[in-house]
Write a structure and sequence with these properties.
Elements lengths: L12 H25 L4 H24 L7 H16 L8 H8 L1 H12 L10 E2 L4 E2 L3 E3 L12 E7 L3 H6 L7 H14 L3 E7 L5 H11 L8 H12 L10 E7 L2 H34 L1
Parallel strand pairs: 4-5
Antiparallel strand pairs: 1-2, 3-4, 5-6
Helix pairs in contact: 1-2, 3-10, 8-9
């Protein structure tokens, strides 16, 4: 959803329509003023009438598509990958070390969150879905202490940082837009009012540490291996850091207007996939005819 909600570059169809409409109104106003004054330059008046005629054509053309949702090139590229994966069983998924750590250490991340919040969180395994979207939020919860103001559901998604450098950046940065749209999706599915991202710093699995050490030995002199290995282990384990310092929380509220925007993007995405499939079918028929 984060990819689908990226905005296309340049002006949207509605912006282009509004610009043309505004220029059309101004031009017509000038034409009426010239006609009322009765002192019109034939050349200027003819030029203005020609301009208004062109604006009418543009206005009519843009009026037909001004309300159509446009997809960004990022969104289209993602949808092409989805299409190829679904229809042909091919994938472009690349599993990085950071992604492997996130999968292998997910339970450890939830444990850190539970210890800091003094709440027993449990990993959610239920896939939630509606007619628009589906997803599996990490944690679905209600506040421990309820008041009239806090009668809401909350969802939490954990993000395990690869190292302390990427982790600490989250203290000073706004929520990543792709995480915002992920939380809006989960809140929509679960009827929650608040979504939270929990950035957690946990030790890297031993096999990934060993992999980094092996890779290091190809790049540094042999007489520095021992020192370099010690630094790698220090960079990838965090037991010496207080547990409260290994958790950063960001949150956002449910936004029903944005959820409506998501619905429109889903409709546009489905239309794009249908067009892509039609082009694929036409290509097959064309080649058969030849």
């Amino acid at each position: 959803m984060g990819l689908l909600m990226t905005d296309p570059k340049g002006k949207s169809n509605i912006d282009k329509y509004n610009d043309v409409f505004a220029e059309w109104v101004i031009s017509n106003g000038k034409k009426e003023e010239m006609e009322r004054a009765g002192k019109t330059s034939l050349k200027t008046y003819a030029s203005l009438c020609l301009k208004i005629g062109n604006l009418n054509i543009q206005k009519e053309s843009l009026g037909k598509i001004k309300d159509e949702i446009e997809l960004s090139e990022t969104a289209k590229s993602h949808l092409v990958e989805c299409y190829v994966k679904t229809k042909y069983g091919r994938t472009k998924d690349v599993e990085t070390d950071a992604m492997i750590k996130g999968t292998k250490m997910e339970e450890e991340g939830i444990t850190v969150l539970s210890r800091v919040h003094k709440t027993m969180y449990r990993k959610n395994a239920e896939l939630l879905e509606n007619e628009w979207v589906c997803g599996t939020p990490d944690i679905r919860c209600m506040p421990e202490i309820r008041t009239i103001e806090s009668e809401w559901k909350c969802i939490i998604d954990t993000k395990l940082s690869w190292d302390q450098f990427t982790f600490e950046k989250n203290r000073i940065s706004e929520m990543d837009p792709k995480y915002y749209w992920q939380l809006q999706t989960y809140m929509w599915l679960d009827g929650a009012e608040v979504g939270k991202i929990a950035y957690v710093l946990v030790n890297t699995p031993d096999f990934l540490i060993d992999k980094s050490i092996i890779r290091m030995k190809y790049n540094v002199p042999e007489n520095t291996w021992e020192m370099a290995e010690a630094q790698i282990r220090k960079n990838m384990t965090f037991d010496d850091i207080h547990i409260r310092e290994r958790l950063i929380m960001q949150e956002c509220k449910r936004n029903d207007d944005d959820i409506e925007r998501m619905k429109q993007r889903v409709i546009a995405a489905r239309k794009f996939l249908q067009q892509l499939d039609t082009l694929s079918t036409q290509a097959v028929l064309s080649s058969e005819l030849k």
